[in-house]
## 1
Amino acid sequence: MRPLHRAEDPEGWRAEVESNRSVVTQVDDGATERGKWPTSSSSAPHIMALMLDQLDLRSGMCVLEIGTGTGYNAALLAELTGAENVTTVEVDVSLADHAKGALDSAGYPVTVVTGDGMKGYRHNAPYDRIIATAAVRELPYAWVEQTRPGGLILAPWVATFHPDEPLAKLTVTADGRAEGRFGAPAWFMPMRSHRLQQETIRDTDERWAASGKPEASRYGITVTPEGQRIWLDTPDNPIG
Ligand SMILES: C[S@@+](CC[C@H](N)C(=O)[O-])C[C@H]1O[C@@H](n2cnc3c(N)ncnc32)[C@H](O)[C@@H]1O
């Protein structure tokens, strides 16, 4: 990583912004070792496109995004569904304020909420779609409760069963469960508080190798009020 200042290197800045890579926009939220962890970014455009495609959005759908960051993806959501239908939650006050200003001035007056997105945002529920743009280890039941039956939840995963960080895509059922499968890797930074220790990453690799290195798409997940269950191939085959 190398620092880049818009005022000092406007061309380098523009090239980075227009690239197909993710752009780190914050390296320290004050709670981590200074400069060690990227704590916010604008996601890689090809990953944003992949996730928007998976969400199968239509105009008028009510959407909750967790992890506002720069606000770029919230603007894309607003373009597809209407700004009045988009709520986005960011845990970092300064990022949320900055994104709100940028979104308003770009003509996308979405609702930006400062808070812990793991709780969702009950006030504007129910949602047709929930998209997380930071990776989770556990899917909060609040997201299931706040999604309409038949609605979708899409979240990058801090997996302890596969070395990639696959995207989980779940459908919410009328009886209050969410179920779905894992797919393509997305490599998002984890939600604050969902980071894995090096030891856990090593254990994950070993366990996955010992179980014959199954493709990520063979894994699935069921979430109920009692918690989440990761399974291999079918819901009746939970992994330990
Ligand atoms: C990869 S960035 C999001 C990219 C963003 N969607 C964009 O278009 O620029 C992840 C964001 O999630 C935020 N975040 C991390 N934990 C969070 C939490 N518990 N609740 C809400 N936001 C969180 C981080 O502060 C960071 O801004």
Note: Residues 75 and 126 are 20 Å apart (CA to CA).
## 2
Amino acid sequence: MAVVALTSASGSPGVTTTALGLALLWPRPVLLIEADPTGGSNLLAGYFRGLREYQAGLIELALTAIDLADALAEVAQPIEGTSVSFVAGTRSHTQARAVRELWAPLAEVLSEVEATGQDVIVDAGRLGLAGSPEPLLEAADLTLLLARTTLPHLSALRSWAEAFQRDPLDWHQAGVLLVGEGQPYSAREVAGVVKLPVVASLPEDPESAAVFSRGAQPPKRVETRPLARALTAAIASIHSTIAERRNDLLEGTRS
Ligand SMILES: Nc1ncnc2c1ncn2[C@@H]1O[C@H](COP(=O)(O)OP(=O)(O)O)[C@@H](O)[C@H]1O
Ligand SMILES: [Mg+2]
């Protein structure tokens, strides 16, 4: 049972695509929270191609007068035919200010979500934006920094990775998830310059990515395509990274 947050250091490496891809392949029920302060629900506009109406989401959570854990269960919308439910993001960046106060109390109730048998995946958008959901990153068992492997992406990644390393307690546990590995740099090369572990790597697979990012028709046997296979491997790696860390913590309390 875990809370996993996805974020990026620069550009648009594929945070939303990867968060949804992981959620849809997750082996247990999972709650996907769209916490990108940029605003606009990427899921409703992208994966659902604007065909699904906005019903409730973060802004209703921010304004709720009832218990936050109950409100969370009410605003979460199921993705039919899957064991994923999602909390839609703000409808525009102008609402970011209103949800800013939500992050800290929401971070606290995420452990209650875990108790209901759901894991949580947070799409935190890009780091450093006004209204960034930092308390959710801090509450996560694992925060994954997504980056492409081009030089501009890697230089931004390196400076954030250093900040994460300086403040390990605040960020619990952080790792890197590479998108489009090998274009041009490999995971090994990235690991050599960024002082955070590379937890997983996803290949460049635009056809499969388009299914998650804009609701494109899935290619034939999408589950055997490179992205789906790499997402499945990424899930295993995320779980073992979190399990190792929990073991270390347990041993630390025993010794
Ligand atoms: N593994 C991938 N292979 C190829 N294209 C990808 C991959 N992941 C994401 N993309 C594409 O990158 C673009 C940006 O993705 P998105 O998830 O919206 O990024 P972000 O949330 O970081 O802004 C989209 O067009 C998406 O289809
Ligand atoms: Mg996004």
Note: Residues 15-16, 36, 42, 125 surround magnesium ion (ligand 2) (CB under 6 Å).
## 3
Amino acid sequence: MNLYDDEARADSYAAVGFEGTYHLASRDLPALLAAHVEGNSALDLGCGAGRSTRLLTRLGFTCVGVDISAAMLERARRADPEGDYRLVPDGDLSSLGERRFDLVLAMFPLDNVATVERKESFLAAARGRLAPRGRLVCVVSSPELYLHDWLSFTTLQFPGNSTARDGETVRIVMLDGPDRRPIEDTLCTDETYRALFAQAGLTLLETARPLGLPTDPYRWVSEERVAPWTIYVLGPG
Ligand SMILES: C[S@@+](CC[C@H](N)C(=O)[O-])C[C@H]1O[C@@H](n2cnc3c(N)ncnc32)[C@H](O)[C@@H]1O
């Protein structure tokens, strides 16, 4: 069961942009993409309600957004009727034909891909869509996300998070949207991500862990000390 195949969850997620803690998932992306990506075709893999796709479009990319949740895609189309949003089966991008992209962005789907096997097929599918000099950018929740309170999230009601091991369920509540039901993610350590990338034939080019800055327009909670997100920039080969 995909957590995001749920009307109330999709409504809540669609109401959230890149404010608060999510600011740190988007603030440094333009510079990272400018440094690593040549060309302007992009696949937003796990586009959800289209927040990340619209960000890429604003940055000048021509995007296709794909997701396994019809509920999330419906919100993406509503917010961006001109956009190209497509429903795909888990790990199967064959409906895209032979198309390859200068950029494949996977912003947060990997948090919800529960097993190592499914993560492997997700990354293999993503790699298979890269142009020869294309780049895969994965934005994931850092393991520390589940151990602190944040401007936009709370985790302290879930003491089990602190003993969770790689591959186990961790819980978090989003504070910015109306749906306060816990989100269940799967913990994945940096070490495991690196092993999965290598196994998928991907070379890690840069890792970013953006911290909150005093110049950001927010009163940060943990964000200046601990990085909530990890951004991996990967190339084929
Ligand atoms: C947390 S949302 C993030 C959406 C969007 N990228 C953003 O940043 O707003 C994660 C999305 O990934 C999707 N997802 C999970 N597993 C996926 C898979 N194997 N292939 C494509 N999408 C997937 C979920 O349905 C959900 O819409």
Note: The first strand starts at residue 41 and ends at 45.
## 4
Amino acid sequence: MPIVLRMHHVGRSFDAPGGPVSILSHVDLELRSGEAVAIGGPSGCGKSTLLLMAGTLDTPSSGVIEILGENPWILSANRLARFRNQHIGFVFQEHRLLPQLNVLENVLIPLLSGFEADKPSAEKRAKELLDRVGLKDRLKHRPAALSGGERQRVAVCRALVLQPSLLLADEPTGNLDPQTAGVIGKLLLDVAAENGTGLLCVTHSTSLATSFPQRMTLEDGRLVKADLGLV
Ligand SMILES: Nc1ncnc2c1ncn2[C@@H]1O[C@H](COP(=O)(O)OP(=O)(O)OP(=O)(O)O)[C@@H](O)[C@H]1O
Ligand SMILES: [Mg+2]
């Protein structure tokens, strides 16, 4: 299976008053098409930072990240935005829906970046996904009229609508009751398997993590295999 995401010796440090603080020092990862990996680790260890870099939304301080064999950081801002919308689905730790758009429009945001997607089939898929997460009667609602968990479900549908090669999910079930969390976790894994997507999912939930075939944890700025429950 082709490698969807390759991180090689990736480091990230942030400037601080006392000098740069290293958050990630040496992250190595190869994620292939159809593979699903859960990532755990204590709060503040750099999980969201890792995912943002994998999604080209943050830039590594050192090391190499390749997505589908390409280095996206050499692209112009416009082409990078298109690359991202075409190949990467992202479920953020906070939902990041646009308040002025309704549910269906929010799910269709990845189509707005100007690359040629088939709009009718994307809209059909958006409605199917919203149905799968129990939101088919909410298409015209604005995010402000939804509960936190409902917003998160919309964000999951947005990440899946264009059948990305790489799916990155940051605590996708953090705001959900256990039953809905189970539905979302299964949806992510099922859709990834159906489409041959590479899935990287940050979670503190042991039950979500144990449903993944592979589990890793961030320790001292590195990614290591986790055999037992996550933090
Ligand atoms: N843009 C930034 N500037 C400075 N420091 C940052 C920045 N982004 C993240 N950090 C720091 O990097 C560390 C890791 O943050 P990150 O959000 O990746 O943690 P996390 O593992 O996702 O935590 P949580 O489980 O609470 O979501 C934190 O100490 C945070 O303050
Ligand atoms: Mg985080």
Note: The chain has one domain: 3-225.
